[in-house]
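Technical note accompanying the year-one report. For the benefit of new consortium partners, we illustrate the data format agreed upon in the data management plan: each record pairs a sequence with a structure-token string. No post-processing was applied to the example shown here.
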Amino acid sequence: MNRRTFLQYSTVAGASLLIPQGLNAASFLGEEYSEHKLTILHTNDVHSRIEPFPMDGGKNQGQGGIAKRAALLKKIRSEEKNILLLDAGDMFQGTPYFNYFNGELEIKLMSQLGYDAGTIGNHDFDAGIDNLKKQLSHANFTMINSNYNFEDTVMNGAVLPYKIIKKGPLKIGITGVGVELNGLVPAPLFKETQYRNPIESAEKYADILKNDYNCDYIICLSHLGYAYKDGKVSDLLLASESKYIDLIIGGHSHTFLDKPTLVKNKEDKEVLVTQAGWAGIVLGRIDVYFERSMKKKCIQCNNIAVGS
């Protein structure tokens, strides 16, 4: 059974691809898929939401918050073996915590939560590029971006264009891209950072990850935005113009997706595009099942509300 067949025979309800009652994912997919499973957890645009939204009658009251996310992560880690925790940018800006600590608290808490990697959002420059570099010194996870040229800035060497992470027998390649800063962020805040075409940059490193390093699965952390009517570069456009990316975890547009969007790439293969809203209200989750040969995959999606 290939991934397309699995998706066609599954029933979508909310954010999940449901499995018949009485069967777990492994038994439904068969032994060939039960060998290797990867659980991808993701956030984006958390915007310094350290505590839950206040209980003031607002739409999001009681939702989000680091403590509740930590509890969810602890539970999932007790149940699953191969887990990736990723963030798609805009860690900073939005509550007084950022105004007071300039992002130090956000980075230290993400490190304690066990993030594996993240990418840079436009608001992560809000206290300036020198501050961003300073705060990243507190990170024990990798920042990834392939289309910002930091060579003439203090950030030179602080961000990688890609990273390979091994989870059990699986080799996962991760790259990242960010939105055009000029016109969105005051120039003195990003200084000599140069913007490169995100589609060309992402594809360049996805090619390297696939063909030079033989990665089993390739993820792009994107802070471009889900979609635009004016043809601006977006996650959907990136997916359609790619060849080697399997999954795009997006940010910037604060889009809540109940389930990933499937996009056909340049070789008529499916790319998943997902995003988890903003403020840590949702913890995105995608489970990827690989057969023993690593050539076939299927997907189970189940985003999780963080408190309420």
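Partners are asked to follow this layout when depositing records. The longest helix spans residues 198-212.
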